[in-house]
């Protein structure tokens, strides 16, 4: 098989494009016209390939879907307007009231919020420490249908017991739904640990430029959907590998309508071409920044799976090409958080991650503000915790920026 980037930059050529165009054009259309009404009907009935309506299908979006399938070595992908839409629609499509979901408790905040909402709609969720497969196993009940984990959690960078949970799900015939956003398919392909479905927020590393929102779900062909009770009879035709992804697309995307637009799909597809190049640089920058900070007297702690003292360091080395491009750190009590952040000149104070620009955010006061100090403490979120998403700048400029901000910070002591 050809290399990752070779396959991605040439993926559009798998299907003929008008005029030999090398970029899949932006098909800004909602509907598709047919000369023969019988072809229109056949497209709707799925007996003949053809486009029906923009909420479910668009050629530009489809080209991106194929690219993501190639990146993940999957069977088929469906795109959504955001990563949250991908997670929400998948759960709405595949789970029903009375079903039970086991989820990692180390979760992206909005996913945590979504899962709590599911609880109010009769889908019970148990949150467990997913760095430990025994905790996942202990939470399984006869009603459990699915296990959800993230590869590397943010902001404290816990690494789930991905391989062991994959084995457990295979033994217990549970759907294994993995959020690969933080690693991206360049660093890790969850199919290797028996993931059934993989979600990516395209907004982050895959798009990479912070200029478009998007999400995707990829069928990995590892789960036997014939054993899954919640597939509607309508979608039980053809290849059973595709029953669930068809239900997510035909029912989920149609009912909830969180479609990705063709313009955003184009931005994301162009971004995806350089995922490998950007990740190399972002991971190198992360290693240099965490090496520098972990030796600094005014830094209390650094959280990054690439550091030997990280509890899942060996797991990260075994599973991932690099241990990610995001880390967090706590400042010594003598350093004022706001002054430190405001002295940064290159690094941007901003939410988001996976951008080409290095971004810093004071976690407790922004993305984790709503949960309150007590819950933050229970999650190990220090009030001084700063999350950094490494960009592609030259590493010396980033190290200088971090150092300059400390140079002034020391003055708090004198
Ligand atoms: C950002 C993010 C999401 C949600 O993606 P959006 O595109 O912002 O909706 C889901 N999971 C993880 C791990 C994320 O970082």
Summarize the structure.
This protein has 414 residues and is α/β, with parallel strands linked by helices.
Proportion of residues in β-strands: 5-15%
Distance between the termini: 61 Å
Largest sheet: 7 strands, mixed
Count of DSSP strands: 12
The number of distinct helices, counting runs of at least 4 residues, comes to: 15
The chain-level mean pLDDT equals: 95
Instruction: Give the spatial strand order of the biggest sheet.
Output: 1-7-6-5-4-2-3
State the CATH architecture of the largest domain: 3-Layer(aba) Sandwich
Assign an overall shape.
Answer: globular
Low-confidence stretches: 408-414
Please state the CA-atom Rg, rounded to the nearest Å: 22 Å
Please tell me the total number of domains.
2
Give a written overview of the molecule:
The chain has 414 residues and is of the alpha/beta class. It has two domains: 4-272, Aspartate Aminotransferase, domain 2, CATH 3.40.640; 277-406, Aspartate Aminotransferase, domain 1 (Alpha-Beta Complex), CATH 3.90.1150.10. The chain is 37% helix and 14% strand. The protein has 15 helices and twelve strands. The strands form two sheets. The chain has a seven-stranded mixed beta sheet with strand order 1-7-6-5-4-2-3, sandwiched between helices. Strand 2 (100-104), helix 5 (109-120) and strand 3 form a beta-alpha-beta unit. Helix 3 packs parallel to helix 10, helix 4 crosses helix 9 (243-256) and helix 13 (337-343) crosses helix 15. The longest helix is centred in the last third of the chain and has 20 residues, at 275-294. The chain is globular and about 75 Å long. The protein starts with a helix and ends in a 5-residue tail after the last helix. Mean pLDDT is 95; it is low at 408-414. Pyridoxal-5'-phosphate binds next to helix 4.
